[in-house]
Amino acid sequence: MPSFDELLDQAVNANVEGWDFSWLDGRASEERPGWGYARMMAERMSHAHRALELQTGGGEVLAGVPELATLTVATESWPPNLARAAARLRPRGVTLVADDGAALPFRPASFDLVVSRHPVSTRWAEVSRVLRPGGTYFSQQIGPDSVVELTEFFLGPQPRGQSGREPAVARGAAQAAGLRVVDLREARLRTVFHDVGAVVYFLRKVIWIVPGFTVERYRARLAQLHARIRAEGPFVAHATRFLIEARRSGS
C-alpha cells in the first residue's frame, strides 16, 4: 500500500487539465443522477438544427453525442481546454469559439438549442438572447453546498443555503431573462474518497471546493485525513446536482 508521501506525489504529478476524471477510477466514486444528462442531451441534440454547448471543457461530453446538430458550436475560456476540445471536436465538424466571459459572440436568435454541463456560471440574459423563439436551454449544474463535508474538513463549518447555486435561484434568473422553466430536478449523490491522493487530485481539479488549496498549505490536515482513512475507511461526502430545462417564448 502506498505511503502518505507516495500518494501525495502521485496526485501532485497527475495531469488535471480538462474534465476527464478517469485518474480517480478505483480511488474515488460519485453516484450519478438518475435522469441521465448525457442521454437526454444527446436526444435533444439529434433533433436540433443549430446547437451551442457553453463551457465545453475539453469537449468530453459533446464528443460522446452520437448525432450532433446540423451546425454545432462549442465555447470554452481556458486555452488548454480549448486545445483539448479542438482535438476531440473539430474532426466531427464542431466549431470551437473562445469565450471571454462577457457577451456571447453570436447574433440574437442564432440557436434552437443551448446546452451546458456543470457551467461555472450561467449568463441567463445571453442564453435567452442567442436562443431563437421556442428554443431550449438544457443544463446539468452543480447544486448548493456540493461536497461541503470536504470543504469543512479543511476550512471548518460553512454557511449552508447561501451558495447562489440553489435551484430556486436558477429558476428565478431564467424567468427574469424571459425563459419558461419546463423541468427542474435535484439530486444528492454519495461521493467516496478511498485515499488521500484521490482527495488531492480532486481539490487540484475542482478548485472552488477548497479555494487556494495546495499540498504545502494543507499538508498537516492531509496527514490527519490519511490517518483517518486508514483507521476508519473511505471519506464520504455528498455532491449536489440539478437539471434545468427552460424555453424561450415564441415559436
UniProtKB/TrEMBL annotation:
Q: What is this protein called?
A: Class I SAM-dependent methyltransferase
Q: What is a GO molecular function of this protein?
A: methyltransferase activity
Gene Ontology biological process terms from the UniProt entry: methylation
Domain Methyltransferase type positions: 52-138
Q: Taxonomy-wise, where does this protein's organism fall, top ranks first?
A: Bacteria, Bacillati, Actinomycetota, Actinomycetes, Micromonosporales
Task: Cite the entry's keywords alphabetically.
Answer: Methyltransferase, Transferase
SUPFAM superfamilies linked: S-adenosyl-L-methionine-dependent methyltransferases
